[in-house]
Amino acid sequence: MGLFLLALLIFTSLPFLGTVQLTEKVMIEQLNEQELGNLQTRLNESLVGKEFSNSISFSNAFEDIFNEINEELKAKEDWDNVMWTPVKDISLKLVRSSTIGPPVDNKWLLLFLTFGLGIIGSLIYILSDLKLKGPPGIKNDGIYHDSATNRGWIGILTGVWLVTFYILLYFNPSTIANMIAIADPLKQLFIPTEQASKWFLYGLLYTTSMTVMGIRMIIKYRHNRYQIVRTITVVLFQIIFAFLLVEILPMFDLPGKDLKNAWPLDYYFLFEWNVQNLFDSGNFGKFIFVWGIVLSIIIVPTMVYFFGKRWYCSWVCGCGGLAETLGDPYRHLSNKKMWTWKMERWMIHGVLVFAIIMTIFTGYLTYNVFNNPEMDGKEMLFGISAYDVRSWYGFLIGSIFAGVIGTGFYPILGSRSWCRFGCPLAAYMGIVQRFKSRFRITTNGGQCISCGNCSTYCEQGIDVRAYAQKGQNIVRSSCVGCGVCSAVCPRGVLKLENGPEEGRFGNEGPIVLGNNGFKLNQ
Amino acid sequence: MSKVVIIGNGVAGITAARHIRKLSDDEIVVISAESDYFFSRTALMYVFMGHMRFEDIQPYEAWFWEKNRIDLKNGLVTEIITDNKTLLMSNGETINYDKLILATGSKPNKFGWPGQDLKGVQGLYSKQDLESIEENVKAAKTAVLIGGGLIGVELAEMLITRGVKVIFLVRENNFWGGVLPKEESELIGRHIKKHHVDLRFNEELDEIIADDNGRVKEIRTKKGEIIPCEIVGLTAGVSPNVDFIKGSGIDVERGVVINTFFETNVQDVYAIGDCAQFKTGVDGRKNIEQVWYTGRIMGETLAQTITGNKKAYTPGPWFNSAKFFDIEYQTYGWVFAKMKEGEIDFYWEHKSGEIALHIVWDESTGLFKGINVFGIRLRHDLFDKWLNESASIETVMQNLKTANFDPEFYRLYEEEIINAFNTKTNLNIQLKPKSWWRNLITN
């Protein structure tokens, strides 16, 4: 634990290490002609050659100049010279190539001191559970006594760290340029000439967390083969499809796509740059385009029909995978009250509708880009710009909901708030699962003792007990089939099953098994 | 519309209230001195162990009671005046009723041990017991548990999670030997010891000894050994909680005496759950049943009678379940600690010593009688059906695969079990492939 905390401390302090000094050469290399034309004089006056103590102060200074000049240009309505590239992207680029000192000199060392030590520390801590927590079995002892997992101060601190990290990553990446820099050596294993992007750092962090916490999950549930098989599968999907393939495909000049990411979770599928990119990449690109359509329209619902949405949500999906591994210690924090279920249904289906509308807009734009390239206002539909719709979607749903709230709030809202309230793909599969699927959680006759373990440990906030104590099967659109309700049940009452649709709701009556006196619902 | 008053908000009383509401518009009042809301008694241990908060073991949210017009009253009934159908409360209030249901539950057995009421000596039954063990555990290093049953093993598991050393004194020479056959008792005994519980057989409590502050400081066993400890857990069973009913004219022996319609000797007064004592046990069951499931079944049944559809207590085939540390236990039908005349059995144990199956049938007719399983989950529906239809041992053994209820991907032991079974019985039973259980039931 000490090692892990040390690694975390070093990682967190990275933005404050090293200094930033912009040289003329770098400036000329990194900025395009238009930007140079606008900025060169001012930058030479006040930035070039000057040493900044860290990336934050440098970015602030740079962004001030940039914004000031841009505002002037806009005021003059000099539209030909106004710069449209987001300023945050440019300042990240400049910081990345102007940092001096430890973070760039000792990338391997720092990578070891952060990721390396972090992994070693966590694994030592996790492996000690094998001995400390006794024989295999459900060991949720003390979860509600520990401030890390009962919304106590450690939990809140963890949440603050995660939220801060997400906000910086999405909206102010130049501040964490040094964190990105230490991932360079790994990126260069794939493509030696390239630097790590912020998404590479994020993917690395994501995959590492999932793998390490996946090991924890397997140790915790080592008596439960469903959990072992499921955890290994979901971690492998992340490592191979979401991380390695995305890096390896570009080595062969192919688009680095996550092949398991299905629309509408993959909300930019029909964006014109995505389609363009795919069609520019030869047959493989076209294959990915067709695959994406087949995946969403045929494979997803068919698999949900046979296995429930769990095949995706807790066996394949990256968001789900992180929730099942890194999020496992927080799964009980999801709210089980009736009002959250009502809110959930409005929210998640609202996001699905938003995603569909957004896709119609971007689809219209993409269609025009390919078929009516000369058309004016090809992004305009019903008087609204497709660019606006999708940037709102990207900001509200893609960044704030899925990232900042979905993961940042793990220690407060539980591990699946994105999957439960926000994911449009989950909403889509949920509708199929509820109305046309062979999947259900079977309740074992009258054995329920209403203890509440199932409901408490349901990360999706389903009040499983409400069904089990009546002898009803659980058929709910939100169930992701993680299988933990069945695992924590002390009386062997719950079993995830695929079977005939007929009778999948089980006993609908208020009388549970064990009473031969009378039957109500026959 | 009549006014039904239920004393006790445990599973029996609350089930009765819920079902009366489903079937009628009666006014329903539930009185409890223990807690504001119904909670799962069997889950108290999980609150102590930090698996759940107390609110998590309450199966219904607060709005449920209002919505269903079930009036919950927190108060203690001190006297029942049956002549004018009135209850006297400890705060001086009176409540009248048209129909009264006694569902007052149990209290831990105390067998007159010297020192049994000292500080630090307690059972584990009520919400108050949970609060007191939270208090008692603070300064505790060692706990001594008296009595070898389900509550004892729960208490052991709880205390171990707080780092308390547990010494478990069992009067018999086997764990829960009154209920479990020898093989199963030994299996559970081994598992308890594996969790570092100091489990001692053939040991009885003689006296609990206090320090100067009236707290327990040690106990003496019948063999004369002194064991220093800060907690003494009295877990030698429970008995009906009926003291305040005595003298009201309602017939009370160990529990409130009832017929199979839950009627007491007084008109419009009924009793269900742990506190009720049948004149004679139904279907060879005990005359006092202290199990979650029977409390529930009694509540369901009495609600029919109260709402005008008079029904006798007709529980289906016996079933029960428990969990001993990490080992789950289920039972269907009857597997007695000592087999009855004419019964024959087959016991299989996995080489790990923690998974087992014990099945009993009638030697001459081949009728299936009952099954115990440890570390294997079985389908209740199927066994209920087999027991109701008097299925044969062959039917059960052939369909073991279908009967399995373990989670997907679990290692299954049916082949091994059948091979051992065929070897022992000289039968040649072939396992039927796993079929969907519903097909079996509709066949």
Q: Topology of this protein?
A:
The complex is a heterodimer of chains A (522) and B (443).
Chain A: H1 2-13, E1 19-21, H2 24-30, H3 33-46, E2 51-52, H4 55-75, H5 87-98, E3 99-100, H6 102-105, H7 107-132, H8 153-171, H9 177-181, H10 184-190, H11 198-220, H12 225-251, H13 272-279, H14 282-307, H15 310-313, H16 318-325, H17 338-371, E4 380-381, E5 384-385, H18 386-405, H19 410-413, H20 417-421, H21 424-435, E6 439-443, H22 453-456, H23 464-468, H24 484-488, E7 494-498
Antiparallel strand pairs in A: 1-2, 1-3, 4-5, 6-7
Chain B: E1 3-7, H1 11-23, E2 27-32, H2 44-48, H3 62-67, E3 70-74, E4 77-81, E5 86-89, E6 94-96, E7 99-102, E8 106-108, E9 121-122, H4 127-136, E10 142-146, H5 150-161, E11 165-169, H6 182-194, E12 198-200, E13 205-210, E14 216-221, E15 226-228, E16 231-234, E17 238-240, E18 256-258, E19 269-271, E20 276-278, H7 292-306, E21 319-324, E22 327-333, E23 343-349, E24 356-362, E25 368-374, H8 380-388, H9 393-398, H10 400-403, H11 414-425, H12 437-442
Parallel strand pairs in B: 1-2, 1-7, 2-3, 7-19, 9-16, 10-11, 10-16, 11-12, 18-20
Antiparallel strand pairs in B: 4-5, 5-6, 8-17, 13-14, 14-15, 21-22, 22-25, 23-24, 24-25
